[in-house]
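Ticket #4471: structure output looks truncated?

Reporter: J.K.
Steps to reproduce: submitted the chain below (868 residues) through the standard prediction queue, then opened the result file.
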Amino acid sequence: MKDDTNTTKPLGREKKSFIGWLFFPISLFPLAALLTYNPYAIEQIQNPPELTTNWIGPIGDLFAYHGYDLLGLAIWVIPLYCILTGCRSACGEPLKMNIRILWRLILLTTLACLMEIFAAELHVAGIEELRVKINTSNSGGLIGFLFGRKMLIPLIGPVGSTVLLLILFTVSVLGEIGFGKLLKFSRMIFRWAIGKSDEFDPGDTEPGTPEYNEAHALFEKAKLAREEAQRQKEEEKRRIREEKEEEKRRREEEKRIKEEERRKAEEERAAARRRLNEQSYDDPFVRNEPQPKKYEKPAPQKQSSPAATAQQQNKPEGSNGNGNSPYILPTASLLAPLKKSEADHSDVAGMSQKLIDTLKLFGLNTTLAYTVQGPVVTKYAISPEPGTRPEKFTALQATLMMALKAKSLRIEAPIPGEDKIGIEVPNLKPAGISFREIFESDEWKNSKAELPLLFGKRADGKELVADLASMPHMLVAGATGQGKSVCLNSLICGLLMTRTPEQLKLIMVDPKSVEFTPYSSIPHLLVPVITDNKKVVFSLHWAVAEMEKRLKMFARARVRNIYDFNHRKTLTQTDMFGNDSEINSDMPKTVPYIVIIIDEAADLIGQCGKEVNPDIQRITQKARAAGIHIILATQRPDAKIITGTIKANIPGRVAFKTSQAIDSRTILDESGAENLIGRGDMLFRGKDGLLIRAQGAWISDDEIMNITEFIEQHSSTQFDETFANKLSRVKEAAIEDPFASNEDDPDNKPAPAEDKATRRELVKAAANADDFKKAVECVINTKRASVSHFQRQMGWGYNHAAKILDMLTDRGIVSPPQGMGPRQIVMDEDQLIKILNGEDIAGETSVDGGGSTDVSENGGDDFTEEQL
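Returned output as attached by the reporter:
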C-alpha cells in the first residue's frame, strides 16, 4: 500500500507539470502585446487608424492601450507576473487564490503612483520620453493620477509621498516573494555559514605535532556533540508531533463514541415514545400502565411527622429534597441548537411612501418618523399634522390594509408616550424565535425577577421578560390554535430552569389531561396534576387557607411580604453543647412561592363558579404578599365567565388572536387582538397598563421532555403528603356513560344519599367551628369576651353567642361566669395565636345542641372525611 502511494505522487506531479508547459506560451501574450504595441493603430488616438502590427492582433493593441491608460508604465509588471505564474505552473505547483493577490495589487498601485510622481513632480529623466512614445496622458495612468498626484502630494508633498510609496513597494515585493521563503533563505545562509565553521582550522600549528592532534581531537569532539544535540532536538520534535497526533486521534475516537451513544439513546427514547403513543391511541381507557422512561428516579422520601416537615422546609437552598445531593438546575444544552432565521421585511421604503400617499388621498398629511423592523411585524411610525384627530386613522384601517396588500394590520393611535401614530404591518416572512434564544439572552440572564416569565420578543426585537411576583396574577386567553399552550409551556419551563423546588411550588390544573402530562413527576408540584373539577375546588380552598396561615405567620415575624420574610435576619443562640439554634424555631427559614396554573379556566368557572369564584377573588386580592400567584388560561374569553370582579385584580393579561373584537375587549379591556396574525403573535399588558405587541418563543415537545427528564433524573417528587392525601379522598365525578368500560368501579358509583338530619348536623358543626375561630380573633383584637360583646361585634343572636362563649370557656380561653360582668381572659395573646394557627389544639370542643366538631391543626379550615 505504501509503495503504491509513493509511485502515484510523482506521476501526479509530472501530469501537472506537463499541463503547465502546455499553458506556458499563453503567459507570454501580455509581453508580446506590449512589445509590439502601436498607439496609432487605436481609433481613439488616430482616425483613421493604421493597420495593426501587433503580434497578438487587435486584442493586443486594446490590452496595451487600456493598460497604459489605467496603470501607465506600471503595466509592464503584469507580463512579469504572467511569466512567473507560467513557470510555477510548468514546475507543477498548484495555482491558488491567496494573499499574494493582495500584495500584487498593492505593488501595482504603488508603482503607478511612483511613475506619476517621478514624471510630474521629480522630473526623472527617461520617464517623460517613454510617456510621449506610447502616447498616453499620464505616466502612472488613471490610478497614479488619482492616488499619487491628487491625494498623496497635497497631503504630504512629493518627497514624503515618494518615501511612503517606496516603503509600500518594498513591503509588497517582500510579501510577493513570501516571508516564509525569505526566512527559509536566511536559515539556509545561516546554516551555510555554520557549515564553514565545521572545517577544521589548524591555525599556527603544524600537522603531526601534539598541539595539532589535540586541537583536532577537541574539534571532532565538539562537532560530534553538535550533531548529537541536533539529532536529539529533531527526535524530540518528532516525538512531540507523534504525541499530538495520537492525542488528536484519541479525542476524535472519544467524540465518535459519545456521539454514537447519544444517537442510540435518542433512538431508544423515540421508540419508547412511539410505543407509548400507540398504546394510548389503541385503547383510550387503559389506565395505570407502565410508562417508558429514560432514567430511573430514586423513590420519594416520605415525611412522617410535622417535625420532619419543618426540617424539610428549613433545608438549605439548592438541595434536591431527599438530602442526598444539591439540586441541579437544567442547562441550555438540553435545548435544541439555535437556527439562524431572518425576517423578510419587503420594501420598507416603498411601503412607507405608499402608506403616506394613501393617507394623503383622505386629507391626512403625514410624514414618516421612523420604522421598527421586528421579527414578525414592521412598525411604521408617522407624524400627523397638528390638530389631526387620532380616530381618523383608526377609521381607515381596512383601506390601508387593502392599499398595502397586508393580511392584517393594527393601528396604535397614538403610540403610548409619543405624538405619533403606529401602523404595524406583518412581514412577508416572519423570523422564528426559539426558547433557547431568549434563555441565552442578556435580558434573561440579568433579570432580577423573583418569578421570571419568558414570553418571547417584542415587536421591536427586544426580549420580553416579566416578573410574576410583581404582576402578581395573569390571564392568558385567545382562540384555539393561536399559541396559548406553547406560551404556557415557555412560562413553565422558564420557571423550572431558574427556580429550585425549595424556591417554587406549582399546582397545575389540566381538565384535558394532556397539556401538563410532561410535568407530572417534577419535584416542584405540591400535588399531582389535577384533572377533576371537584379537586380543583378543594385545592383553591387549601390555597386560601395557606394564604391566611402565611399572612398570620408574617405578622408574627413582623414582615410585610414573602420577600421580606425569606430575607429576614434570624436570631440564633448557642446551647450548652455549642450548637447554634434559631430562636423562633417554630417558623421555617424560608417559604416557597406557590404558582397555581389553571388551564381551561372557563370550563372550571362555568361548572363550579359558585364554589371557585370566591376563592379566586380572595387569592387575587390578598395572596400577593403571601407569595401565592395564579395564572388563568382559557380559549373561551366570555364576559359571563371571566367576570369583571376577577379581572379587576389580575393586571397581567396576554391576548392571542381572537375571532372578534368583543373577545379582545374581554381580555384586554380594549380591541386589537382580533387584528393579530396568529402563531404566537400576542398582545401583553403588564402592571404598568401599557400594551406591548410580542411574538411568543417556540419550545418543542422534545425540549420539554429533555428538561423534565433531566429534573426527574436529579431529583424525586416532593408532594405535600397532607394536602395530597386529603385531595386523593375527594371522589371524582361519577361516569354517567352506561357503555363505559369501568362502570363497575365502586369509586365511580353514585354515593348513597345522606340522611338530612346528619347533613344538617355536619353543616352546623362546620359553621360553629368557623364562628369559634372568629370569636378567638375577636378576643385577640378587643381583649373582651362576653355574650353582649359578641352580639355587637359579630351580629349573632343571644343563644348562638352564648354557645360560642361556652366553647371558649370549655377550652380554657376565658374564665367561668362571675356575676354580671365580662369574662376574664385566661390565656395571653401568644397562646391565643397558637390556638388560632392550630399549633396547640388538643381534644374536642363540645357544642350544646349542635353535635361536636374537631378543631383541626390549621384552625378549622380543613374538611373531615365525612364532609368530603
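Triage note (M.O.): checked the attachment and the full C-alpha cell line is present. The chain has 27 helices and 17 strands.
Status: closed, working as intended.
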